[in-house]
Structures are given as C-alpha cells and as structure tokens.
Amino acid sequence: MAQTILVAGSGFAGLWGALAAARVLDEQQATQVDVVLVSPEPRLGMRPRLHEADPTAWSTDILPHLQAAGVRYVQGFVSRIHRQDGYVEVADANGQLVSLAYDRLLLAAGSAMYRPAVPGLARHAHSIDQPADAAALDAHLQTLAAQPDTPARHTVVVVGAGFTGIELACELPARLRALLPGTTPRIVLVEQAGEVGPALGAGPRPVIEQALDSLGIERELGQTVAALDGGGVVLADGSRIAASTVIWTGGMRATGLAGQVAARPDALGRAPVGNDLRVYGAPHIFAAGDAAVARTDDDGHQTLMACQHALVTGRYAGHNAARDLLGLATEPYRQPAYVTCLDLGGWGAVFTQGWQRDVGTAGAEAKALKMQINTQWIYPPAPRRDLLLAAAHPDKAFAG
Predict the structure, then answer these.
(1) Secondary element (H or E) of residue 271
(2) Number of compact structural domains in the chain
(3) Which residues form the FAD/NAD(P)-binding domain (predicted)?
(4) Strand pairing class (232-235; 225-229)
(5) Which pLDDT tens digit goes with each residue over 320-338?
(6) pLDDT category, 397, cuts 50, 70, 90?
(7) Distance of alpha carbon 50 from its chain centroid, rounded?
C-alpha cells in the first residue's frame, strides 16, 4: 500500500517542498510513496510583485511543474489537521469535506495580512495581500479617472511603512500619473512608529528617506488610523485625510493551521520547528515558509515571513519529510546569509547585506538587481522533470 507525503499550500514553500520530496523519492527509487499537494488553485502567486502594476500577471500556473515531477495535485482548502490520527479535512470548491490521510505532512499554507478591529477597515480599505486583493485595488484605481476632479481623488493613504508599504507607496506615483494625466498624485504613508521601515533598522533608512522625498511621498509618523470611511481616514490625533483610496499593509499572521499542529505558536501564529523543520511535539509534521519559525544560524536569528526563507525552508522541509519517511537521516536547516532588496519605485531600490542591513548598493544598480530577482530568480524553471528535481535540492535554493 502506498504511503503519502501531503503538502498543504502551493506558495514558494509548498511548491518547492513538494518538488524536494519528489527529488528524494526519485533518488531513492521509492515508488511506493506518493507526493500530494493540496491548495485552492494550482498557481504560485508572486507575492513579492503585487505592489507592481498589472497584478493579474503575477502568478504562475504550476500544474505542469507538479505533473512533470510526479506530484499529484488536489484542489481544495485544508480546513483541519487531525495530527493524532494522521489525516486532514479538505474543503473542495463546493464546500464538501473530504478526508486525506498522510504519513508525513508538510504545512506550507502561508500567511495572511493582519486586519485589526479598526472601524471601517473591512469595508473601506484595500490591500495587496493576495493576488485577488491586488487585482481589486488595480480595478479601483482604474475607476479614479471617472470620479470628480477633487484632491481626494488623487490622494492615496498607505497605512504601514514597513517593507510592503514602502514598496507600494514608491510605486504609486507613476501608476497614478498614468491613470490621471495632468494631476499631481498625493501619497501619504501613515506609520505608528516614529520612523519609516522600523523593522528594517537604521542602515537603509537614509536611502529610503531620500527616495521618499524624491518621489514626493508624505509621512505621518507616530500615528495610527482610528477609523476609515468612504472619504478617507481619521488619525488617532483627530486629524483627517480625505482620500478616495486607502490601502492597508498591516503585519502578517500565519495560517490558522499552524495553531492546530503547534502546542505553542509564536506571536505571529507560526509553528516552532526544530533543526530539521519538524514541528515540536508532532513527529510526522514538518512546516516551512510563513507557517513556521526556525533558527537560521547559530547566532539565534530566526526566519522571517519572506520569500528568501520560504524558498529555502520549503526545500529542506520537503527533503526531510521524504527522508524521514524512508528511514533516512534528516539534514539540519541553516541559512546564515541574509539580504534585502527593497523596491523604491521610480527612484530605484536599495540592497542590503546581513542582519544589520548594511547598504550594499542603491539607486539604478539595486533596481536592476531587484528586477532580476522578481522576474527570474523567484520563478521555477521550465516544467521538465530533470530541471525541477535538480533545482529542488536544498543547496540549490535562491537565498537572496
């Protein structure tokens, strides 16, 4: 009877986890083990690109890749994990529940944007959290030209000056000028911290500030949004910004499934995992990407909810899930190199190295690197079995 490695999620971690498991099985000639990937759609959403224009283009059909590697795809949403009994409940497109058994499970169901209980947020705020959200924002922006020519029409409030908020804010001036010729767009970044990019540290901040100034992007620092309505936002100090477009870029929270497999999820809801990415207390469950928190090195740094960590943890988790099922030794995950490349729109970009985020290059040179990352490095190779299995080795992961 065949055994099953079940992968929940088709993002960067899920795709590469499934391919890595298939690579081990191919290497070991383990024909009695199936790799099954479950997700709502067989698509890899290019989340790092959702701040760009034309967001409907930023996803890739991965069904040919899965088929080429011998991974079976099941369309549906994993709604519950029964870790003691070794099966998951999957809701199909019609909402019907089916059960899928597993011998090893790889949880790679990602994360979603945190939406606090701010009055009006659910109804009036846009986001670029998922491809559908980014597409809805783009459709909204396309309608602005038909609205009355008021200051609010060409004002956009971006709430949150973290990685996503900065990239989006820097992209918007050019997008709005194209949509609203002859106007001067007003972009306002609202951030509760006293500086932009609080989690990015002091290293790249002068470059970021220079770019924001050059692009004419206003900042409301040390501020929070108290309420939203159809005409703009009210800040905590009582001031109001009239805007036809408000975009929320709050922090991320891991899939709720992580709380079903981890006894003590971290503050972001992620499942803590050991050196081989096995969930503590769940010997048959591995986790990767945004669903997991792991040590990246011997200095105590931990994975972030970022593409570069999803690409690598996915490969290691799939590799180790397959080896563990076959009775082989697993391999410790380590990813000591850490870099960031922040897109700054028409100004360029900034590339940093190390956890202290020392600036390596900025402007046009960094922009060229960002374009290479976003258009080449994060995409899977052509759907050929030999290429996919070779690229799925943990040592082959993109670490930038």
Answers:
(1) strand 271-272
(2) 2
(3) 5-311
(4) antiparallel
(5) 999 999 999 999 999 999 9
(6) low
(7) 10
